[in-house]
Amino acid sequence: MSLVEVDKNLFQKxxxxxxxxxxEAAYPVEGCGLILEKDGAYRFLExxxxxxxxxxxxxxxxxxxxxxxxxxxxxxxxxxEDRGERVAVIVHSHADVGDYFSDEDIAAATIxxxxxxxxxxxxxxxVDFLVVSTREDGADHAxxxxxxxxxxxxxxxxxxxxxxxxxxxxxGSLV
Length: 175
Hints:
The chain has helices at 13-26, 51-57, 74-82, 103-109; strands at residues 5-6, 32-38, 41-47, 86-95, 110-111, 121-122, 128-135, 138-148, 153-163, 166-174. The strands form 2 sheets. The protein has an 8-stranded mixed beta sheet with strand order 1-10-9-8-7-4-2-3. It is of the alpha+beta class. Helices cover 21% and strands 39% of the residues. It contains 4 helices and 10 strands.
């Protein structure tokens, strides 16, 4: 797939409904989850945001709370692999600030290159990131981000308007 081609099955209404409902329920903190794929079928896995627990244990190392940060238990990734599932998308919400890929998101999604002069690399090669904007009255927009190894940055692959339980692709190409 090229950077602008995204599997249309990632945008099935029932899958989006589950993800958006989970993220809306998390408001006013960031909700998170995984879209897992097995044999071409996708499912949404609700994940607990561990940011507040990490912050309580070590506020210097983890200065942000779940209001502005998310941490998914790494065991969820291993469990998915044990079930023969592939993590296709890491999903999280941004409460009241929009669906951009923040500096914190980029830092969590990349690893430094082999030398200081080398560009960063994807921490999860082949995994996309869906950021959903949530507000007090619900989700209103989402963007799917994909790592572009040529530019060593995340690019917007799909933009999605959300209104009254309906979803409209505003930009991007689904195959």
